[in-house]
Amino acid sequence: MGASHTTIDIKTVHECNRCLGGKTLHPQVSLINLEHPGWRGEAVKFEFYAILLFEDKANGDCRCCGWRYYDFANATMVFLTPGEMFRMSNSNTLPDKGWLLAFHPDLLCCTSLRKHIGDYTFFHYRKEEALHLSQRETATVTCCLQHIEEELHQPIDSHTATILARHIQLLLDYCTRYYERQFITRENKNKTLLTRLDSLLDEHIATGQLQGGHLPTAEGCAGRLGLSAAYFADLLRVETGKTFAEYFQFKRLHAAKQLLLEDGITPARVASLLGFPSVQYFSLLFKKLNGIAPGEYRYSVS
Fold it and tell me: Which of 79, 96, 112, 143 is most buried, by CB atoms within 10 Å?
């Protein structure tokens, strides 16, 4: 975001309603229609959770949020954490058509969502990693938003926060399902990313960086793949069932097997080359995962 663009810092849900023409039916939650007149060429920062749902294929809003030909294109969703800056494109701060669900973290106090909000990792995805919905999925999300709007029009009582939080949590659960579906429909793209990841890790191992104690990090690999750390972690989990630490350990032990087949290479040397803290740790881990000690491995495959 260039320095020439001003940022609108919206601190409260009420202020958000004022700026976007919404009505404050509850001080901590609002559902706002995004058909508004201004805000072009600026960034916006919400000091609360914000979920954007929009459909505007004509001006390419879907494409600026990472849409590709293998994605659904009925609608797009973006999820923002409190304090995150957002801008649709060079021409728009927000989409011209759609909905904004705003809810303050304080709403979640004394609700089950307060304990689980961190489980929805897509709040930490980049805009380019947005969720792209089918027609049926859009209908389900819209239904969830309608339930929230209906509750907002009820008189506020001791049950309001709990019911609103449950409706929001149900919406987020559906979005979790749809993101997992999106990983499936992006299978070929994801396999390409995993191939690139394998190349990065193989290069890291082959260049001797492990021997100097320089282990690869999930954040570093995600950056080189052009992904957010959260999206990268979820992609790896969906595609391999492993965390980054587990996946790298698998790669490192595979490299250990190759080294142990070379003449004159001892387990101690392998442990040193691959950055294991000690030969004892390496031997225990190798035997645990392969059922045989590293010193015996060469003879078992010859």
Answer: 79
